[in-house]
């Protein structure tokens, strides 16, 4: 069973790295695909990839998912048991600056992976969606059956499109597609463009931190190991032949941004200088996941307290940047 090959796109990314590491340490083979783009510091991606390359069962392919021909060769050369598509142009705020990158990577790139998964009769196709697709809701916690027809930026619009594209392929080609709506993922090796990383960096340097929406944001922060456990359970589950499905993966608890900042300060033993700013265009005000559906289907529940997760991130940050 362990000689199964899983193709993970975005394997040098934050979540892709942790997922690949888990699969490799469990004895599965991972075919990693990543173009190591420069959306953020490439050194972090290379360093994550170096760790993965230490495993004999890891094969890395520096490929862009927009390149159908190169991907086609990977699918032809290997017998692939499951695909997890995590490669994407991530980030809510950047989608206002560079919308084209979202169309090219998240629509065209996603289509290539979906089409090749169909062509090669991949049994299980898992892909990253996002809590951002809920937009500005009034009712909480957010359930998978809520209306998501009103994305408030193009990032969410491309992820919603992914869910629709996958659903149509499931229907047409009897593919098992599973979209996972991740809720603000954080942890060691996290993304430099995200709040936890930026806040930690600036607090250490004594620089002010930008607190949008006057600090009134509330987020369901999900520890990366919990996200990985969820994906892993779904990937190796043998019974999940049920067409197109969408699940939230969140911590199931919300926390105020100011409380989150206090946790960072406590772990750094340093106070922040806050620069309060208005709500940014495209930002959702609150996220809070309902996780009953994934619990029922896979007996999966996130278990990490945010105080523990922030501590682990800061330990990693300090040891990585010395
Ligand atoms: N981190 C979060 O809080 C969060 C929340 C919701 C959804 N997501 C989604 O989860 C997935 C993984 O996110 P992450 O936080 O690990 O982001 P990340 O940016 O760290 O990882 C994405 C990886 O994909 C690679 N990539 C991007 N475009 C590519 C392309 N065209 N071809 C090949 N590789 C490409 C990047 O180089 C990067 O290493 C993304 O789809 C993201 O939208 C993340």
Explain how this protein is built.
By secondary structure, the chain is α/β, with parallel strands linked by helices. The protein is built from eleven helices and 13 strands. Nicotinamide-adenine-dinucleotide (NAD) binds next to helix 1, strand 2, helix 5 and strand 5.
Write the SSE topology.
Elements: E1 5-9, H1 14-25, E2 29-34, H2 42-53, E3 58-62, H3 68-77, E4 82-85, H4 94-97, H5 99-119, E5 124-130, H6 154-173, E6 176-182, E7 185-186, H7 195-205, E8 208-211, E9 218-219, E10 222-223, H8 224-236, E11 244-249, E12 255-256, H9 257-268, E13 273-276, H10 292-298, H11 306-321
Parallel strand pairs: 1-2, 1-4, 2-3, 4-5, 5-6, 6-11, 7-10, 8-13
Antiparallel strand pairs: 9-12
Helix pairs in contact: 1-2, 1-8, 3-5, 5-6, 7-9, 9-11
Tally of contiguous helical segments: 11
Strand order of the largest sheet: 3-2-1-4-5-6-11
Under CATH, the homologous superfamily reads NAD(P)-binding Rossmann-like Domain
From the 3D coordinates, which CATH architecture would you assign?
A: 3-Layer(aba) Sandwich
Q: State the low-pLDDT regions, or none.
A: none
Give, in order, the helices and strands: EHEHEHEHHEHEEHEEEHEEHEHH
What gyration radius follows from the Cα positions, in whole Å?
19 Å
Number of strands: 13
Hetero groups in this structure are: nicotinamide-adenine-dinucleotide
Count of all domains: 1
Summing up helix and strand content along with how strands pair, one would put the structural category as: alpha/beta
Q: Percent of residues in helical segments?
A: 40-55%
Major pleated sheet: 7 strands, parallel
Strand content: 15-25%
Task: Report the principal-axis shape.
Answer: globular
CATH class: Alpha Beta
């Amino acid at each position: 069973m362990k000689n199964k090959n899983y193709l993970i796109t975005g394997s040098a990314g934050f979540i892709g790295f942790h997922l690949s590491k888990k699969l490799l340490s469990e004895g599965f083979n991972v075919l990693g695909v990543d173009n190591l783009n420069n959306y953020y510091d490439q050194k972090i991606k290379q360093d994550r990839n170096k760790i993965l390359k230490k495993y004999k069962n890891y094969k890395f392919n520096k490929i862009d998912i927009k390149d159908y021909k190169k991907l086609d060769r990977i699918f032809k050369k290997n017998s692939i048991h499951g695909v997890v598509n995590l490669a994407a142009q991530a980030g809510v705020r950047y989608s206002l600056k560079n919308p084209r990158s979202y169309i090219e990577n998240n629509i065209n790139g996603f289509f290539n992976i979906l089409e090749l998964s169909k062509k090669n009769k991949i049994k299980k196709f898992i892909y990253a969606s996002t809590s951002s697709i809920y937009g500005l809701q009034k009712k909480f916690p957010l359930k998978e059956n809520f209306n998501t027809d009103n994305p408030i930026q193009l990032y969410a619009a491309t992820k919603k499109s992914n869910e629709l594209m996958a659903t149509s392929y499931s229907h047409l080609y009897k593919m098992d597609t599973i979209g996972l709506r991740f809720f603000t993922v954080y942890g060691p090796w996290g993304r430099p463009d995200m709040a936890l990383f930026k806040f930690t960096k600036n607090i250490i340097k004594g620089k002010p931190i930008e607190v949008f929406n006057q600090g009134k944001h509330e987020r369901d922060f999900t520890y990366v190991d919990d996200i990985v456990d969820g994906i892993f359970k779904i990937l190796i589950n043998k019974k999940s032949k049920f067409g197109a499905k969408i699940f939230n993966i969140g911590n199931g608890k919300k926390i105020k941004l100011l409380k989150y900042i206090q946790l960072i300060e406590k772990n750094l033993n340093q106070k922040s200088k806050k620069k309060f700013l208005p709500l940014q265009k495209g930002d959702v005000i609150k996220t809070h996941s309902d996780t009953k559906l994934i619990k029922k289907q896979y007996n999966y529940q996130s278990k990490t307290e945010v105080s523990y997760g922030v501590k682990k991130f800061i330990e990693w940050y300090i040891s990585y940047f010395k």
